[in-house]
């Protein structure tokens, strides 16, 4: 299908990519992380297309202020707004049938906000969950792999800088600056191994995010706490994955998700960082297809 553009009630336009037929048995909605875009799921989109064919429809989209979606007002740079945006995407692009929600980092937090703010709609449609390198506890466990004292200094500098960036509106980071920062981006986001193509893709995605988005979402991301929301979700098939070198959402983040939602299958990837979809596509694909297999197994057989 061609790319779609979804116009929201506040006139923000979301860029949406859809693969698979409208009448697929299940729809998988893949949500990217902070400062990234829908391209970060390219390994998973290819795997789902090859493995399931027309049985699974796949939706990815660029969050407001990211990628090819339009800018946003600073007051709307919140996870609550992203949860409402996800509700709109589901209602407009996948209005019927079961859905499996897959979120990386901020995308996983968006899924939790959708469940928190729209519990009836979530319960009526959601058949499975996959959480990749995300947290339900804000920055509680984020220590950047450093000592507590250094962590406090970095967090102070980060939050102060985020406030400055948030007031820069729709400007985007200069490419020359991002090239200079590439070693820092690689250290922050990746583990022991990093394919040069992956760091180029991540850098290109950051270059498309507005400075308002890069700075504006920081406060909401740090403050979110949704373990109680997860605990209320019941017996949904679920998976959570994390790298043991993840400096942003380390293993305790995934462990607390699995503890709150006992149906979660937890996978810890040795040597991997925050970008598991790229660093460990095999493990992420296996977890995602495992959840989809369980959801499909519970569906009535298709009529021929």
UniProtKB/TrEMBL annotation:
Which molecular-function annotation in GO is an example for this chain?
Answer: catalytic activity
Residues in domain AB hydrolase-1?
29-287
Q: Name one Pfam family in it.
A: Abhydrolase_6
Q: Which GO terms describe its cellular component?
A: membrane
Concerning InterPro entries, the annotation shows:
AB_hydrolase_1, AB_hydrolase_fold, AB_hydrolase_sf, Epox_hydrolase-like
- Tree of life domain: Bacteria
Q: PANTHER family given for it?
A: HYDROLASE, PUTATIVE (AFU_ORTHOLOGUE AFUA_2G14860)-RELATED, MONOACYLGLYCEROL LIPASE
Q: What protein name is recorded for this chain?
A: Pimeloyl-ACP methyl ester carboxylesterase
Record the organism.
Answer: Micromonospora marina
- Provide the organism lineage as a comma list: Bacteria, Bacillati, Actinomycetota, Actinomycetes, Micromonosporales
